[in-house]
Request: fold
Amino acid sequence: DEIGKVDGKIQRTEDQMLLEWAFNQLPDDLRKVIILFYFQGLKIREIAEVIGISTPLTKYRLKQGKVKLQE
Reply:
C-alpha cells in the first residue's frame, strides 16, 4: 500500500543520512581507503601504492573503517 511505500522511503532516507554522517565522522586516513576501495574500485595493493602505505596497513585501515561505520 502507499503508506508502506512512503514509510520505506523515509526509512531509506534516514538510513542514508545516518550513513553519510557516520562516514563523515571517520578520520581522513580511514575514509580515503574506503573511498578508493568501494567507490573507485581499487584493489588493496593499488590503494597502498596510491596512498604510499603498506598493504597490511591498507587492509587494517579498511577493516577499521568498516568497524567504525557499523558502530
